[in-house]
Amino acid sequence: xxxxxxxxxxxxxxxxQLLRILTTKQGLVDFTSNDYLGLAASNDLFxxxxxxxxEPELKLNGSGGSRLLSGNSEYAERLEAKxxxxxxxxxTLLFNSGYTANLGVLSSLATRESTxxxxxxxxxxxxxxxxxxQAKRFSFKHNDLNDLESKIKKSSGKILIAVESIYSxxxxxxxxxxVISLAEKYDANVIxxxxxxxxxMGKSGCGLSVSLQLHxxxxxxxxxxxxxxxxxGACVAGSxxxxxxxxxxxxxxxxxxALPAHSLAAIECSFDYxxxxxxxxxxxxxxxxxxxxxxxxxxxxxxxxxxxxxxLLDGNNNAIQTAARLQRMGYDVRPILSPTVPEGxxxxxxxxxxxxxxxxxxxxxxxxxxxxxxxSRL
Length: 378
What we know:
By secondary structure, this protein is of the alpha/beta class. 43% of the residues lie in helices and 14% in strands. The longest helix is centred in the C-terminal third of the chain and has 20 residues, at 358-377.
């Protein structure tokens, strides 16, 4: 029986205050979810999706198989063409989540003779995909171009540089233009995860790279729909040859049951809804500005201008206790603990949303400053 082994491992984690549990926080102001534009809970979007799935071709409960067997449809291909237009690419390929998209890209594009270099704060799916590829792997110091260049010089074979538009733990932005310049200098290729910029940046939510008009210099872009777009799924954007390559070599695409028609309709409706309500992006920007003005020069906040704001707290217990205190004030803020982040950089991860009121944001900032003042006196 495995249960005694499970219990030992869980008790070990519990003793180190690292035990993960599933929780719900009813009645608290949301400062935790990635629903930056409020689309996940939008009644208008819900109704639009319900109306769309009444179309005869979409009245299906499931896809019935992988895309290469029975799971493909004309609707899926039309949606991919529409997404290619939004993301200014020759083609896109749908994946079931951002995690599987990154896994599918990194694991299939590199070989044992290749080198993958990724930012040390890249999401776990990028690191997992790199590991599965069996390529040589280096991490470089977060947003450190000098360290990135030193790792490139140590690389061999095909070189892939994996970065994110906005980093999920610190909320800061990739120096994308400089990363691309280094890649061009050494004949490397950039893979960009646009997870936290999809929807919140650019016309129709096209993300950071298109907003900066750098997209044509990036080999592979991954867009996720489970954050600001409020639905589920993801796509990889790039050349038509990239699409065909992934169909043939990406195991997470080949062997996964395709997204059902309801998910496809939800993705399309979400982008249609955002196109009609781009003011949500400006509202979110105003909420971020309010928070930054209210929080001021708090010494333990990271340098972020995005919807992801971070308060650094030394030690898991400190982070847990501070989050619990904010929850008692009515704010749903969660701690991020080591080893998810390096020891000594435990934190509160605060997500701002277009639907957070200015009063709610002011109240949260006031609570954070009060707690910070108390800690400084200890």
